[in-house]
Amino acid sequence: xxxxxxxxxxxxxxxxxLGWAVSSNWTRPILFIVYSxxxxxxxALILAVMYTVITGNAAATRPYxxxxxxxxxxxxxxxxxxxxxxxxxxxxxxxxxxxxxxYMAPLGFPIFLxxxxxxxxxxxAASVVIVLLVGTLALHLDISxxxxxxxxxxxxxxxxxxxVIAFAITLSMVLLAGRDLHGYGEIMAQFLYLxxxxxxxxxxxxxPIAWLASLSPLPYWLELCRRAIMHxxxxxxxxxxxxxxVFLRLVAATAGxxxxxxxxxxxxDRRARRLGYIDMEANW
Amino acid sequence: MARTHxxxxxxxxxxxxxxxxxxxxxxxxxxxxxLQDVDLEVGEGELFGVLGPNxxxxxxxxxxxxxxxxxxxxxxFVDGLDVVTDYKRxxxxxxxxxxxxxxxxGILKVREQLWMFSQFYGMDSTAARKRIDELLERLGLSDAAxxxxxxxxxxxxxxxxxxxxxxxxxxxxxxxxxxxxxxxSAARDVRSEVRRWMREDPTRTVILTTHYMQEADELCDRVAxxxxxRIVAEGTPRALKQSVDDDVIVDLxxxxxxxxxxxxxxxxxxxxxxxxxxxxVDRFSLMLADDGVLPRVMTTVEGxxxxxxxxxxxxxxxxxxFVKLVGxxxxxEEA
Amino acid sequence: xxxxxxxxxxxxxxxxxxxxxxxxxxxxAANRQKTWVFFDMAFPMVGALAMVLVxxxxxxxxxYLGFVVMGGAMLAFWQNVLWSMAAQFxxxxxxxxxxxxxxSPTTFEGVLLGMALGSMxxxxxxxxxxLLLGSLLFGITYTAAGTLPAIGVFLLTLAALYxxxxxxxxxxxxxxxxxxxLSNAMQEPINFLSGLYFPVNALGAYVGGAASLVPMTLxxxxxxxLLLPGTPVFIPAGTEAxxxxxxxxxxxxxxxxxxxxMEIRARRDGKLVTRWE
Lengths: 284, 335, 277
Ligand SMILES: Nc1ncnc2c1ncn2[C@@H]1O[C@H](COP(=O)(O)OP(=O)(O)OP(=O)(O)O)[C@@H](O)[C@H]1O
Ligand SMILES: [Mg+2]
What we know:
The structure holds three protein chains of three kinds. By secondary structure, chain A is an all-alpha fold.
């Protein structure tokens, strides 16, 4: 038992390193600028301009700007963890033809995937900080690293990462069970955008979709991030819930995500093997 | 530099000519000389083989000749055209097929993919389709003609790639290991189709690289042996074999035991030695200056405590010529 | 010995045939993978929807939703230029197809135009769906009189975009994987600069002017001026259309030069040869 766990841990650590090595890009300045600075900051600026043309940057509406910027900052975790991750897996298959080896590797495919996803999340952390920095310096949001409620932030993020990884793995397995599907990782990240409350409150969504979104862990996670960082100076999606209540919902939604993810993963894995899609090549 | 060929009068017209052709690859860490001062002349209508171990520079040579790579120095002409300056005109006259290549679009069917490539050469669609069907038929691929590429076995895929090379009727066709990973019968189909295609028009030329001695021996009119970017020998397979005619070739079979290759090589009168393991026994191929060397070999073997389970003297093969020239067998790693 | 004369087809013939042939697998892909077409449409649709919801969260006037819907439709084409045209050479190189293009007598221009035309149907479908659904869903009204001129501007913009795409593709000849990152860098930042989701005049003269290097910026702004009443004027629509028209030959010529140059460089440095990077 102990040996098995040690072996899995070693495998996991190896996959984290592999993921880091494959996207070793992150140590190269130009790529860091593209992925960790340009892309997320541009998104934040798009939102800032949209906010400004409508509100004229009136003082009373500033909490809404904070809502947008913190939401889009933490969105990087999903962008990296889901979209870039799934793209990476599909590239392993389609471009490098190496996925089959990871799939057959003794350490177990799920462990491999979890390791890869972890390295993606780690590399996303930089963009989060950068966007918050832009928010503070360029958009004059009142963010101070000294006043962040770190226990709340860390607890919320850890739970969210569990969900994100579960989702990413399930998604990539589902994608692997399909044929030519590059680009879908991005699409799914966009779908999550809708349900996450990252750039608009989920109450804006039409009734049934808003209800679906309220089952997802993402809105609770982002709400807690906003509370931990902005303490009251950001627009809140759940003003009637206490921090503890929001956190409880996050826990419940995470558990649900895990369960659903597990079931889907099994189904997709079976299909992928049945149809021999693990080592398929795709291009047109 | 101007060099003029006289196509109509000159019967020994050259299909390929290189002069001191050299190619150096620059990577972040190092410089690799893949080809060094290669001088080559291949006549029109020849089936010319380029034989060499991994990394010898065979593919590099082909890629320069098909205009994918520029030489670092030296010159190369294909069908009389300079590959550096006249590459645009050259491209309609050449073709290239590499073994194991994955080119194309998996979504297409075999026939469609071949048609697509034919269009890049400006072929008439109807004529192209007819030609494609004819070639597919010859290679026994008719049944797969309407299969999607993703569903092909690698052997079928390789045959399809060959059709792509043949269908445009290039003046010079370059085949880079066309039978790699093919089973015996598929490889035979490929070879005989190449031969037949050349007979269709005796001015067609084929340059082929290979790892397989037997392929080079049976198929090629002439062969160049390349090692570490240099041509170490050139001639008809027969002439190359003759270069080892004076030697005594012995196949020696030993049960497993301590390694003896280096000791055998050290014996005076042993021109070359190579070994491969097969079914748990070591098969040595030795090239001896004369019969008198054999007793010394036996003493050495027994001295190492190895047991001889077989010994035959045989006719030289191209492989032996290769081993003598290169110093090791094709399959053996460089020391 | 007979001296067979090799048939040399005219460059124009090869060019036209190449366009048709390279378009073919794209058309077939759409045909043989219908689910893909659906998802392919979903992506920009969802993106545009998210941006509409941002405005709704801000209680923006309805005309802003129109900006997003038109921007989302335009984005479909821009994405196509970036990923299905420019970046395609990176895939083609990975599996050796690029080598075959190079050694054939065809030209990159033909191959690239074929790609573009081949996916035109699906992209147009995608853009059309965003425009139609978005307009119906959010009740956007357009200036009917602006339709024809807007279509004209659209076609100019498209031509300029695809010429820019060729220019970008030339980078993929040489840089391959690295150019991929450039394409990525041209997503959100260009979405921001070109005013995909807001009127470009919000960026001011300098940023907006610099952003005008991407034909989408001016083209989109001109179309908005023509179709959506109340669009803040950055530069008058007619001038914008003229500027876009000028971009077409400029990008086309630059693309041609760059493709030739990059090919030579790539041959020199051994970059056309298939290697898994
Ligand atoms: N694009 C490249 N960049 C750097 N070095 C290269 C490149 N292509 C080949 N080489 C190096 O040049 C040398 C010759 O390679 P080449 O592919 O021509 O050999 P080969 O005879 O075809 O080998 P094989 O039998 O394995 O196909 C090798 O050392 C190889 O590592
Ligand atoms: Mg080779």
